[in-house]
Structures are given as C-alpha cells and as structure tokens.
Amino acid sequence: RCIRAMQTASKNLMETLSDIYEKEWVGQDMLYVQAQNNEMLWADLAHKLSDQVVIPLNTYQAQFPEMRKKIDKRGRKLIDFDAERHSVQQMQNNPNRNEAKFIKAKEQMENAKRTYEVLNSELHDELPALHDSRILFLVTNMQTLFAAEEVFHSETAKVYSELEGVVDKLAKEVQKGTLPRKTFPKPLPITNVNPVISNSSPNSTLASPPKATNGSSSRSKYGGHSQSPTKDYEPIGGHSETNGTSRLNGNGRSDLYDIPSGATTDNLPPGVLYKVKATYKYQAEDMDELQFEVGEIIDVIEYEDPEEQEEGWLMGVKDTTGQKGLFPANFTKPI
After folding, report:
1. Are 87 and 107 in contact (CB under 8 A)?
2. What does the alpha-carbon distance between residue 225 and residue 70 come to, in Å, rounded to a whole number?
3. List of E strands, the chain
4. 332 bridge partner residues
5. What is the dihedral of CA 77, 82, 83, 86, to 10 degrees?
6. Among candidates 258, 283, 281, 253, which has minimal Cα distance to 269?
7. How far is CA 317 from CA 176, 227, 228, 311, in A?
8. d(Cα 320, Cα 318) in Å, to the nearest integer?
9. pLDDT tens track of the chain, all 335 residues?
10. Contact partners, residue 303, CB within 8 Å, separation at least 6
C-alpha cells in the first residue's frame, strides 16, 4: 500500500511537470521519455515486491494459525486418551466386568493413544523446524527486498540525472537569451473617455456606479475650486448669478450653491439646501467622506469653509444616522 501511494505521488509529480513544461522549451521530448521511464520503474518495483516479498511473507505467516490449530488438536486428543485409559482402569478393577466391553474399551484406548502420539511426534519435529526457519526466511526475504530497492534507486537516479540535465539546458538557454519567446499583440490605445452617467435615467441604479470624481484622478483635500456640477445639477433657469449677489433658496437663506433641477427647496430644515437620494452604493475612502447605501436620503448642506469646496463633491448629512461628510454628487440624484 505504501509503495502504491509513493508510485501515485511520483506519477502526479511527473504529470504536473510535463503539463507546465512548455513545448517550445528545450528538452521537452526528453522530459516526456524520462517521465515514462520513471513510471515503468515504479511499476516494476511494485510487481517485484508483491511477488517476491509480500506473497512469500504472507505464506510464511499463514503457517502459524495452522500450527496453532494442530497444537490445540493434540491437547484434545490427549484428553480423549486420558478418558479412555481411565475407563479401562475402572473396568479392569471390576471383577464382574463384561469381557466384550472390556476388550472394546482397550481397543478404543489404544486408538486414542496412537492418535495422540502421532500428533505429538509431528509437533516435536515441526515446531523446532518452524522456529529455526525464521532466520533463513528473514535473510532471503530481506535480500530480495534490498536487491529490488537497489536496482530501483540505481535506475531512478539515472532518470533524475537526465531530468536535471534537461533543466540545466533550459537554464542556460534562459541566461543566453536564446529561448524562443511568445509574441503577444500590442494593446490597442484607449480612445474613449468615461461616459457621463445621468442619474435621471430610470435604469441608473442597475448600471455600474460612476467614478467618485468628475474627470480628476483623486479628490483634492485642499481644493478651493469653484463648483462645476454634472448634468443633474444644472441650476434652475439654466444660468447662475452674475451680478455678484447671492441667490436665495426656498428658506430665504444665502445660497452659494446652484440648486439642481428637480430639487425641492420647500419645507426644509434650517441649513439644508436640498435633499438627494443615493442611486449607487458609495464606500468611504477617507475619514471626512460619507458612506451610504442605495436609496438612502442625504441632506445637502453648505461647506463650513467655502474655500474647501471641491468640484463634483457635496457636503451632506445622512437622514438615518446624522453622520456628516463629503460625498460624490454623481452617486445621487436630487429629490
């Protein structure tokens, strides 16, 4: 069983090596040949050990149960002989015995005696012989085992020496730079830009979420840029104030922000510019950012410092938790 397990492991190793060894590499044919040789050596070793070591060992061990049975039988025949002898002695001491029965009892006693003596004589010969045979059997069995192992390891050493040579040639080819290399097509240049996703689309919640920034690679922590809203955040009336005065929202507050189309400014709590609903899940990437799930309502409020206002980002407070932070405008839609 151990030899079969080792044979299977060796076969799996060679198959794995053959699978990962590419056809263009030097020595691929030699690798296949040596893998086949290795498998044949394992099969030959398993056959020899089974026929010349394991089977003789099982045959030798099978003698012991039979010998045990024979010893037990001798004990029973000895009891039978003692019983017959005791019966004859009782009849011999009886003056009124039946002579015919006495003669028959003596014959039965003699038969029991002969049976016992035959078994006892055989055991006297067989038991010492079996005991002495252990040395010769051990020597013969171990010689066969070690000889088979010696041949196997000698031949497998040659196989692994050849495999080592194959790998060495591959290493030299790599060092020289003469190993054939696969050519891959050059990647096509990216010509399109990220499309603007309109949150007003009825299927916007089923699409992939937009990037958290409007065209920039990362959110500026110390911005100060003026707002450049997305399409959903165009101001009502299509233009912003140009006379230098602040436009007022529905609460009569000074508003430095453009109120997007579709946003309601009536009956809002103090300080809230308008409300938005999350159309995509957003995972906060910084301490000052707001994390939310699809469908959550967020109150948009003013930046504490207008100079920190960042393009494409809003300041808001979640209705459910009261958590405050920055969030990307194009992940939400006004309500």
Report:
1. no
2. 107
3. 247-248, 254-255, 272-278, 297-301, 313-318, 324-328, 332-334
4. 278
5. 160
6. 253
7. 64, 19, 21, 18
8. 6
9. 788 888 889 888 988 988 888 888 888 888 889 899 999 999 999 999 999 999 999 999 999 999 999 999 999 999 999 999 999 999 998 988 899 999 999 999 999 999 999 999 999 999 999 999 999 999 999 999 999 999 999 999 999 998 999 898 889 888 888 776 666 565 655 554 444 444 444 444 445 666 665 444 345 444 443 333 444 444 443 443 333 333 344 444 444 567 888 888 888 999 999 999 999 999 999 899 999 999 999 999 999 888 888 888 999 999 999 999 999 999 999 99
10. 309, 315
Concatenate the DSSP letters of all residues of 202-265 into one string: TTGGGSPPPPSSSS-SS--TT--PPP---GGGPBTTS----SSPPEE-TT--EE-SPPBTT---
Say which amino acid occupies 76: R
Tokens of 153: 């390891």
Consecutive H or E run containing 1: none
Identity of the residue numbered 288 = D
Scanning the structure block, which residue is given the tokens 């196997």? 152
Q: What's the chain's length in residues? A: 335
Q: Which helix (H) or strand (E) holds 23?
A: none
pTM over 0.85: no
Strands 254-255 and 324-328: unpaired
Q: Which two tokens stand for residue 175?
A: 């060092």
Residues 6+ apart with CB under 8 A from 52: 144, 148
Cβ pair 316, 299 in contact under 8 A: yes
Q: Letter for the amino acid at 253? A: R
DSSP code of residue 330: G
Q: Which two three-digit tokens encode residue 240?
A: 């912003």
CB atoms within 10 A of CB 38: 21
